[in-house]
Fold these 2 entries.
Entry 1:
Amino acid sequence: MTLQAPQARTGDHWLAVRPRLVLASAFMLFLELALIRWTGSNIVHLSYFTNFVLLGSFLGIGLGFLRVGRAKGQPYYSPVVLFGLVVLVVMFPVTVDRDTEGVLYWTSLATKGPPAWLILPVIFCAAALVLMGPAELVGRCFPELPRLEAYRYDLIGSLTGIAAFTALSFLSAPPVFWGAIAALAYGVLLTPRPLVSYLGLVTVPSLAVVALLLAETLTAGALWSPYYKVTFRQFDQLGVPVTDISVNGIPHQQAVPAAARLQWERQYGLPYERAATPPRDVLIVGAGSGTDVAIALSKGVSRVDAVEIDPKLRELGGSKHPDHPYDDPRVTTHVTDGRAFLERTSGKYDLILFALPDSLTLVSGASSLRLESYLFTEEAMRAARDHLKPGGAFSMYNYYRESWLVDRLASTVKAAFGHDPCVDVVSTAGQQAVITAGLTPAAQRCAAPWAGPTAGTPPPAGDDRPFLYLKDRTIPPIYLITLGLILAVSLIAVRAVAGPYRRMRPYADLFLLGVAFLLLETKSVTGFALLFGTTWVVNAVVFAGVLVAVLAAVEVTRRFRTPPLPVMYGVLLAGLLLAWLVPNAWLLSLPLPLRAVAAVTVAFLPIFAANVVFAKRFSDAADATTSFGANLLGAMVGGCLEYLALVIGYKGLIIVAAVLYLGAFALLPRRGAVSA
């Protein structure tokens, strides 16, 4: 029998409980997404550890629920801490640091700003404290409604928060709009009693945050794409006009006339020299600000398909590039993910060029997946090979920094094309290299045979473990240390805020459900990124789809008589088995509409079953806020376990999730204990 909560009480707040719950939930998710985007744009470490703020947010949300019933006053601390966080980031930004071996990013540039060991713990703790406030406001609504009805409105609010942030991303709205929404939400949700505390701890900090973000918007002159904070400056270099483009404070691209670029750096012209036949139809992945397109046009090609994932970089190329390559009628632009374009297009090309398609950020919600990760797998190289005309060639160039990385990519190309590629190391400083392979050996003209990979070169990356920059099949020490510190801080924080751990002991199964569900969500995000692209639109749709599946599970549980928990656990494990058995290669081979139907079925069947299990268990929990808080803390631990994918691959996360669900089933309280 489902336990029913007392009817809504509205005397403590001027807003009725249901709209208040929707607003608080929407604000909670909106604030989480805004913090991830804004801190990552100013603290470069977070561009490569995007789930660091996510983990802090999960901790704060879990703590907020656990505070319900223990804290009497309003969570006025949240806007104050948010103000302190914004001041800290504005005053001490970190512009560049990618010079550490063993992690998933590279550069030779130096750091400006506080070191990672100092700034990252502060950001993590601040994110937890900021999100704890809205979560406490959400948690206070739960006891006023029946369990599943409260969860239902929480999900509706979360979907609203995603929709609002997605709309602002589509409009390229700067963070001052995010701050204004946060200030308005704080003003509505926090009651103005006593008035002095409300003005000093809510109104003043909130307006100060808006003012700081407005000043940043006006002074930085930044363009806000869905991925980056983009800034640029224009100058003359040896009489040549140059537009230097930085993203998230890191030098990223230069818009330079084709003639000057070819004169300054050999690598840009080598793909055309190594192709045995002068190319006419060219595909450029990573077209960016247009220099590679301008070079292709200068070589006399008749058609260029230019693929660029970031709309603002493409926009800058159209307006700032001295050669105006995007105005040429021979050029067709595609703002999408490069791997997704290869999987969808039916076009054939004389030359396919991967032109420095390295991103400076990770896919949101996936701890180790970069925007370009699926471009450098053996399967991606095969997809490029399949789109070459007879006599065509594939080429890629970049500053690879490590010689083993050049060898790994050359080995990947060899595995895909079946013969040795041309490998030109143009400069050993930064390992500036060009790798070219013809469809057949006769379609390429190498200056010298490739010597082959050196001993210790890792095998090609694959779609299941698309971690090009990870040399060894292990979790780098920096991640292990960071995650260990996160868990230690979380244990201390939970004990300080929620009291003895025995309070959550009856909900150990709900904790494991949270751990496993986060792994399922990660597998869904990465799977859809492979099947449909790593674009922000796909990412937003997947997160919304997960919440819709959860909401559907709640509605089914509320309105219909669902099978007993043991049966639903069986359905869940069957869904996980299906997800394990269906290969990505088969899904990629399907036409796009069928691929979408099959992918949704495979991904969302276990998610739906898992949330029917959660809804049934949650409806019988004796303490709604404590049980929900335990589940959210489990999600935080699941975020740490995501890094297992570095060792076992994303498919292996399904096995880990299955083991965790079996553990949750084993810890399921007996019916008598639940009734008590």
Entry 2:
Amino acid sequence: MTGLGALLPLAGLGIWLAGAALNGAAILCIFYRADPSRPDRGGLLAASAASTVWCLLAAILGADHTAATIAAAARNLALIATIYCLFKADGRTATLKPVRPLIVSLVLVQLLQPALVLAQDLPATANGAAGAQDIFAVRLLIDMLVAIGALMLLHNLYAGAASAMRPVLRWTGIALGGIFVFDLNLDTLAYLGGALPQPLGDLRGLFSGAMAVLAALGLSAAGPRVQFSPSRAVAFRTLSLVLIGVYLTMLVVGAKAIAMIGGDMAHASQAVFVIAAIVAAGLALPSPRLRGWLRVTATKHLFQHRYDYREEWLRFTRTIGQGSAGGASLEERIVKALADITESPAGLLLMPNEQAQLELTARFNWPTLAVPAVAADNALAAVLEQHNLILAFDEARAGIDHAGEAAQVPGWLMEAEDAWALVPLIHFDRLVGVIVLARPRNPRPLDWEDFDLLRVAGQQLASYLAEQAGQQALMDASRFDEFNRRMAFVMHDIKNLVSQLSLLAANAEKHADNPAFRADMLVTLRNSSEKLSALLARLGRYGSGHVADLGPIDLVSLARGIAAQFASVHPVALTRELPVHVMGKREALEQALIHLVQNAIDASAPGSPVFLDITAEGLSGTIEVIDSGEGMSPEFVRTGLFKPFISSKPGGFGIGAFEARELIRAMNGRLMVESREGLGTRFTVTLPLAAAASLLAQGETDNSIHQEVA
């Protein structure tokens, strides 16, 4: 029994130190991982700090010491303040009015505890056993009143909370309720028995620490998932603190054990033990080998994978396969699927155009970020495609460059503080697109596991996009086949009509008696015949890939003629009239521009002018068609504007924009579009300058002459 009695103080000491360690762990968890916007973060942090001090004082001085009792009261005050903050965060102003007096009463009652402890320590009271027992009973009643009041507040808080607030209250409420229930039962047993049960009294700090850890895990920004996955730096610091705590615990326990043995050599033995422990720590802690071993061991045995790959794959598959019934396109679902992996709140999908420049295709929860028409140059796309590089923007902002990508990152992405990572989508060594992820709500640096998972997921998403593009190409080919079959009949009928009109014109020349009628009829018939012949030529030109008889075109003269055609319908104005001559075919270019101007008029409000802007830059001439109408979404510009048989107009056939682009391409030009919903649209037609084309042709002629002479 003597040996067991000697071990009980040591067990109590270890339990109190364990409680201090748990509260310290809770402080670290709250400080590093708790959501800063949580209303209970500050109160729980203060309560955990007070509990840590209380447990240490109880271990060193004893649980009944005045300093330990005052620390316990400070903990209770912090817990009451936490409850009040939760009431305020729920926004129930009507509930706060009756709650404030109860909170104030509990605080005042709790403040009586230190006064009673100080009174109990007075010499007059300490010598009177009856008086000391009475003060002890009053102290227990105060603790029970505080516990009962706190439990009533917690019950009312959770029962009357809004549904959106209950997930915030759940884990904090469980932790606070557990602490006050334990204290209430312990105080009740002590009041009925006249003394504090020693084993349960020693467990008070340990239980409080466990509840603090539970509350700290519930404060995580990722939700109350009890999954400890801190960063490497935080984990090793925590491990270092734990090792220091174990070392100090062993030091105290060893010194206490030597003192309990007694004898003349007790004090000398304690001094030798402490000195030996200090020397051992001084030799072991600076050792690089020991630190390396600890790091490897901790990484191997303490850390789990950041991701639950089974759950991530199931969620990834559900997001991609849910279909477009909810209104989200495949492109938007692709961004969401990747953003869910890293808990990013938003993202963008950029895909290469015909010049390999990246353009915005889809957004996910990121409407405020302004994305230029050309989001990134083809140089960035080439680097990403060559190295399959996942770009961390924080590293790029810090000047870290892995494969020359830092110089190619566009400025708007570097300036966007929410931009966190860029993931390339590679399909058979070809860049299909890139996804820009927003910074997670719980920011952290990307590590090797993020890179591996995002790279594999990006390849899978690229295959989905490539499959969709292949299916769209097959559908377009099928529709073109049907269109060509229909056009064969149309062309046959139009040929017959042209033949009839030509015959009618020939007969009218010979047999019409009225000269005036004959002249008007001839003019009308000839115009109709010419228009139908032009239509036949245009229909027969589809698929040829070029326009014959190219020549110089005065863009100013052409633009004036187009503006005059629409003058009676809608205002069309020229912003600049600098002389610019390009190489092309006037009829085909006029047809393409008329279609673009007509689209701009259809999209504009009545009376809102459409502008034609003519410029020359380098070896190219440009004419822009600008309106301030409804605009188009990036998805429609990407997937619908230049696709045949897709029209936003009721009854439209959907080949006008496609035809305009093909005509301009056939003249060695380009048609580009920039549109913003609610702001307007800008179509840009770029063709080679006539002078540059002449010089190029002259150079080719001279080369051929030199080759013939040689």
